[in-house]
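About this split. The held-out portion is used to measure sequence recovery: a designer receives only the structure tokens and must propose an amino acid at every position. Recovery is the fraction of positions where the proposal matches the reference. Here is one held-out target exactly as it appears in the evaluation file.
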């Protein structure tokens, strides 16, 4: 998405910037850049030069030096933990891509579990929801530190038909690196597909 505030963030980039400009600009007028500890910010025009695909050329000095950034909260404090960014623990569980998928699937073993690491920038209390598809109704825990929420998968009738489930409220008390895990409850476990966990600030 083209940045509406005119600030294009390039996360994890450690190199010094040689130049930045819009590919559509024949004069290659330089764009202002700001190097931060967590990446580089490029100041771009408020109006996108192309309605479909606007390209920014960013030239850096030396070989690329990129630190894999953690997931972080949006400006409003919300946070989406997508399946593709999850750390998978177990032998059977895996990421599935494609139509009506892009989820964590093959979750047949209740010993398998998933985890996300992310950076808290706006501490507070958050409503937690999950996008789940399942043929049977198994239960699980969402764990952050010593906090634990219990959830139950809805029976959606198809592993590609997802429903949003409300799980309760957790608190992220301090800024910094944090992890959230989802672990099955062994008794009565039924496989489920998990597309995302979302945290929304409590009003």
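Reference sequence for scoring:
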């Amino acid at each position: 998405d083209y940045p509406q505030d005119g600030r294009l963030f390039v996360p994890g980039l450690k190199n010094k910037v040689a130049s930045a400009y819009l590919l559509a600009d024949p004069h290659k007028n330089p764009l202002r850049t700001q190097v931060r500890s967590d990446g580089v910010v490029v100041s771009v025009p408020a109006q996108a030069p192309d309605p479909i695909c606007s390209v920014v050329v960013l030239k850096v000095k030396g070989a690329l030096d990129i630190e894999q950034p953690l997931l972080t909260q949006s400006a409003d404090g919300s946070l989406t933990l997508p399946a593709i960014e999850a750390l998978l623990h177990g032998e059977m569980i895996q990421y599935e891509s494609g139509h009506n998928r892009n989820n964590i699937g093959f979750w047949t073993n209740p010993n398998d579990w998933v985890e996300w690491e992310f950076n808290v920038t706006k501490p507070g209390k958050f409503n937690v929801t999950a996008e789940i598809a399942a043929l049977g109704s198994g239960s699980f825990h969402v764990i952050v530190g010593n906090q634990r929420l219990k959830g139950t998968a809805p029976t959606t009738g198809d592993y590609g038909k997802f429903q949003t489930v409300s799980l309760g409220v957790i608190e992220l008390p301090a800024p910094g690196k944090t992890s959230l895990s989802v672990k099955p409850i062994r008794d009565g476990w039924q496989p489920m597909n998990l597309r995302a966990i979302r945290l929304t600030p409590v009003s």
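Annotator remark: The radius of gyration is 20 Å.
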